[in-house]
What we know:
33% of the residues lie in helices and 26% in strands. Strands 11-10-12-15-13-14 form a six-stranded mixed sheet, sandwiched between helices. Strand 6 and strand 7 form a beta hairpin. The chain is of the alpha/beta class. It folds into two domains: 47-174, Immunoglobulin-like; 185-415, Zn-dependent exopeptidases (Aminopeptidase). The chain is built from nine helices and 15 strands.
Amino acid sequence: MRATANVVRSLWATATLRRAARSLAVLFALVAAQPSPGMAADEEAPLLAFGARIAGDDARTRLVIAFDRKPDFSIHYVADPVRVVVDLPETSFGLKPESLEPRGLFNAIRYGGVGAGASRLVLSANGPTEITEAKVMPEEDGSGFRLVLDAERIDRGRFERLLNEQQWKGTGRAVKADRPAAPPPKAGTFVIAVDAGHGGIDTGAVGATSKIEEKHITLDFARVLAETLNREAGVEAFLTRDRDEFLSLAQRVQIARQGNAHLFISLHADTLRQKDIRGATVYTISDRASDHLAAELAQRENLSDEIAGVAIESEPPEVADILIDLTRRETQAFSVSLARNVVTSFEGQIKLINNPHRHAGFRVLQAPDVPSVLLELGFLSNEEDEKLLLDAEWRKKVSGLIADAVRRYRQAAVANGG
């Protein structure tokens, strides 16, 4: 009898703890959802997703996500590879990573912001998949609402009909970069676009020890670099993104060109399977990769749009114009010159990878008229590099070295009539 009573008490205590934990989560959700002091009365705070679970097999899978308020949503499909895209209003995701570990029909699940006022859940599927039922239900205890998504495996023909029937083309506000037209720079001003890689739903790599996301590393460094460059006489540097937002690769190029940039510097801090590899690398664009490592890195970086659920449309064939070809060649030559100047500045000052100037087909470096480089500051998979990437003094030092490289590049370009 005593044992039975102990079991009852244990069960009661467990249930009580579960209810308390749920109430605490809801309390945090409600607090986080309150408008900030500077928010206008008619400006609604972001939704808050505070819980999730997933279950199923390779035929059917169910996802459930708990929100503090009733979420509006829309569902779309993207092919090659198959992805299910769930668009939401701006949402703060307070989810434990393990709560949406991919399983069943899905091999990867990502979520995050994709632009002003918009967030997105991207479900990468193992094959043709359809959301057969999607509904929002109030929680029984009144703590919020849950979005329930039931997915089923379907044949290719059915999936192609879904693609053809939907009006969504992977564009619109979810991937729109709201940028006012940049005024023409003052005569003689040297304009530099500083591009913080990744952002929003595209978190990039994750630190081996700190677990910090690459998108935060690159933005922190971009701010310091832009500030350093702006102290140079006659230089004006601007950021392609100044907050945690998603920009497609094409948008980054477009922002640089619309900003009348003379240079484009894209910042990254990737991870590698070989954790002993460390040091900075400077990449320029080429239709052929210089080595296997460069090819692998370019392939991963070019997946940024795919990760965010953007439908990648084939680019229209360019006009066969010899002037365009000459412009590309000249731009590429300037890009190589900039890369070499950066390597020269870094030598003996910071750790460089072997053969630090490499090249591959990076889509973010494809502007035909803006010399561009992609700078791997170091690798978050290496503990020593990771410590440096988190060090404010190191960021200042490296930014100063990049500014020196840009100064020499600019002097040479002016001397050669560039």
